[in-house]
Amino acid sequence: MTQTHADYQLSQLDQLEAESIHIFREVAAEFEKPVLMFSGGKDSIVMLRLAEKAFYPAKIPFPVLQIDTGLDFPEVLETRDHWVNRLGVKLVVASIDDAIANGVVVDDGKTSRNRMQTGTLLHAIEENGFTAAFGGGRRDEEKARAKERVYSHRDEFGQWDPKMQRPELWSLYNGRLHAGEHMRIFPISNWTELDIWDYIGREGIEIPPIYFSHQRRVFERDGMLMSETPLNPLRAGEVVEERTVRFRTCGDITLTGCVESTASTIPEIIAEVSIAKLTERGATRGDDRFSEAAMEDRKKEGYF
Amino acid sequence: MPDATESLTANMDMLRFATAGSVDDGKSTLIGRLLLDSKSIFEDQLEAVEATSASKGYDYTDLALLTDGLRSEREQGITIDVAYRYFATPARKFIIADTPGHVQYTRNMVTGASTADLGLVLVDARHGLTEQSRRHAVILSLLRVPHLVLAVNKMDLVDFSQEVYDKIHAEFRAFATKLNIPDLEVIPISALSGDNVVNRSERMDWYSGPTLMHHLEHVHVASDRDLVDVRFPVQYVVRPKSEEHHDYRGYGGMVAGGVLKPGDEVVVLPSGMTSKIAGIDLFDKEIAEAFPPMSVTIRLEDDVDVSRGDMIARPSNAPKPSQDIDAMICWMTNEPLRPRQKLAIKHTTRSARALVKDIQYRLDVNSLHRDQETKEIGLNEIGRVQLRTTVPLLCDPYSKNRTTGSFILIDEATGITVGAGMINSAS
Description:
The structure holds 2 protein chains of 2 kinds.
Chain A: H1 12-30, E1 34-37, H2 42-55, E2 64-68, H3 74-87, E3 91-95, H4 96-101, H5 113-128, E4 132-134, E5 151-154, E6 182-185, H6 193-203, E7 214-221, E8 224-227, E9 241-246, E10 259-260, H7 266-274, H8 280-284, H9 294-301
Parallel strand pairs in A: 1-2, 1-4, 2-3, 4-6
Antiparallel strand pairs in A: 5-6, 7-8, 7-9, 9-10
Chain B: E1 14-21, H1 27-37, H2 43-55, H3 64-67, H4 71-76, E2 83-88, E3 93-98, H5 106-113, E4 118-124, H6 131-142, E5 147-153, H7 162-176, E6 183-188, H8 212-218, E7 232-233, E8 236-238, E9 250-254, E10 265-269, E11 273-282, E12 285-287, E13 295-300, E14 311-313, E15 322-331, E16 342-347, E17 350-363, E18 370-371, E19 382-393, E20 406-410, E21 417-426
Parallel strand pairs in B: 1-3, 1-4, 4-5, 5-6
Antiparallel strand pairs in B: 2-3, 7-14, 8-9, 9-13, 10-11, 10-14, 11-12, 11-13, 15-19, 15-21, 16-17, 16-20, 17-18, 17-19, 20-21
């Protein structure tokens, strides 16, 4: 035993873990074809770890699905492959490049790849017949996310209707679906960014190295530090310089900013997150800055 | 001591609380205040709220904008749906179920209260107890939320008058005697100016009780669980069928009551087969005991037939399988609940169908009057019903165990959750 429980009291991190495991098992028991949306970022790695725990010593009884934007950080893809191999789970990759080539989504030159993820994802769900898709969304990330149920019903167009959400009572989840509909499942809804880091530290979970402080060639855009990459051409007036940075989220390399940081260990990151003055999305996600309801609008379309 | 790799909050305990109150009682402002004064609001969030407040022409920062996350909520200036928010202080982590005050969204309040350790009801000091505050107290009591706080808000608008507070306090205590509220605290506050929220108010020196935050940080919730009656609903059968774990057969689930230990004699319901616990696994470790709300995997000594929906209990202390259920129902959809209706029911990990045999009465949550004339329960109404289920449920009274005593009802045609049930008895 890792700890004693003289007072039969679970720490909040243990309670969160127990709740998430319960959700994973419930979905695996009741849905015909679940899948875990896996980006290789810290939240989805924690999700995979929780799934591993839920079914151990059996293997995770569903595949993982990655939406390949073509603009992912190479370090993140490496970590993805490492986890998939270690756990022996099946990896399904849905690529935006393929989706564009097949006419599933349209590249009009204006829409960001992040936004094209939605159509690619919905197509992959439909094509594979997935009935439940686990996502690593947390309610503390954003105010539209704060409204989301653990089981988030999506209609046959993949849409979220916040006004028609099913009441979610006790730990009794309702997974009923009609043909063509699916459910998005958020087992780590009640976790905060700090909880994720605590758990990564406690469990010794391997995450992509870009979360730790490193030297990077960056330039400033819209108040954020963006990586120098041929995928993201410089605009007039933008100057590249080397800074000591780390990432708080891992998304599309052209939209995900990094923060100046010397935190190179988990305890240092925890110390930094504990006193952070900006939310992780506000600090580093260009895609959430379009409008006050950017996340809500994207979720209604079928984004995760 | 916290591990070196963990933050100060990792090993703390957690309090879940649900807020309730009428539309203009200042609930969103209070939540905004709790978040702001506990330094749980980030600069970018505050800047967005300040900018929106300014663009709406307000001369103050509307903290309610922090919590109304949907476009339609901001348009109408009201909270439509439950939102969950998180903050931590050096003492505890908190999950707030921020529930709407409107009568038509009572079902969302029930949703938020179903998992809460504590209910926080706001009243406006100028108006005193309203129908809505009584209604919320009744719902919190029906849902057996063990702790209740009545926050008498807007004390700044009644000159911080002790007399006003005393009157509301006395009125509520009298009302609460008719309810099941084991623990009640009444705190005078001003959410707008922050009096007695986090910091003690100098303008109410006549009040000697705790501030709201102090109470939230210290209210004792550990003893609210049932650690006596063993209840383990089997959720998932773990069968690796791998070389390494060829004969492994474990039963995954979340402990709903009692303490389980290796060597304990157990009975599997509904079959009634008995065995002993061979081991309890938490991932790759064997553990010495399991208690609520741990998610574990249990192995039994004998190869008995156990599947999802079954329940592991102690032979001398097990629920009696029953198909006839007497329960309180909160109805959550437009089409009323009527006798002879057939619905899907989900209770612990067991799904079945249920027939409404009788509607005994509809409860008027304002007067607590039991209306036996009307034989239907409408949207947002609560009533007592008799159900007959297709398979036996392994249940306890809700007053004894909130997990084995609760169920949901699902409309089989639409798939929507239409009712929340709390079991009185089974026969």
